[in-house]
Structure formats: structure tokens, C-alpha cells
Amino acid sequence: MKRVAIIFISSLGALIFIGFLIYRFALPQIITNVIMANDKDVEESILIPKKLKSKITKAKMLVQKEIKALPIIMDSLDLNFQDLIKMVERLDAKEAVKAFNEIDNKRPETADQVFIILTKNINIEGYDISKFRFVFRKKFNKNKLDEFIKRIKDENLLSSMTVEIARQTAKQILLDNRQKIEIELKNLQD
Fold it and tell me: Read out DSSP for 15-53?
């Protein structure tokens, strides 16, 4: 009986560990693959619940729009692709959570107020975040910020682990689009 209990507990521990590894390391790649898949594949997939298909389509459109705009922003900030990847890698999930909480509590109204909170809470080693103020002002939208805060809270997405998964997913999306981004950036610089 004792041996059965030990085998059961060991098996359960192994399953939990495997689940953690899948969540931590495979999930960003899975999310990236779904976002980067063509629309027909998403619609025909039996693995994706119907209620998620419209959300995936919206996410895909947003990602494609941002990827298209990214080289212009990078050029204006004199950033190369490696800098972008380093910044994503160096973003600390706990700092991002702290910044989100302060934004949620203070409910800033302007781009500058939000940017001050971000620069106070987030430090990306080797980079001066203040140089992004101009781009942040241009892209800031109070309504989108409010929607973002509501969605994060409604779906309970605010944990260091969830932010870490989002960071890894963003990095993977950038890496998957590296060639497109670098070609467009080179065209802008020529």
C-alpha cells in the first residue's frame, strides 16, 4: 500500500512538473503559431473553441498592424532588431505588474502621466526608456488603455507568470517576423 502511494505521488509530481514546463516554455510557441497561422487554418481548426476564433482573428489583425508599423518606429528611434529583442528579454514581469497596478489605481488621463508611471516602475538595463516618449505620445489612446485594463482585470491575467508568457510570446512573434521587419527597416534606411 505504501509503495502504491509513493508511485502515485511521484507520478502526480511528474505530471505537475510536465504541465508547468508546457505552460512555461511551450505555450508561447503555441500561442505564436495560432496568431501567425492563416485565417483559413484558424477557422477550420477543431482544436480551437469557436468562441476563441473571433478573438484570435482580432489578435492577428492587431499583431499584423503593429508588425507593419514597427520598422518605422524602430527607424525613428534608431533601434535595430537585436536591440528590440534585448529589450523584450530584459523586461521584468514584476516591474510590468507593478506599473500596471499603479496605472490602474491612479487612472492617469494623458500619455505623459502614463509614461511617467511606466518609467518610474520599469527599468530595462542598457536602454533609456525616456527616448520612447515621443512615440508613446503618438500611439497613446486613453480608450484603448481603459479597455486593456478592463480586459486584464476581467480575465484575471495579471500575474508575473502570465506577463512572462506574454513577454515570451511577443519575443517569439518578433523572431518569426524578423526577416520582414529587417527588410522593411533596411528599406527605410536606404
Answer: HHHHHHHIIIIIHHHHHHHHHHS-HHHHHH-SSS-HHHH
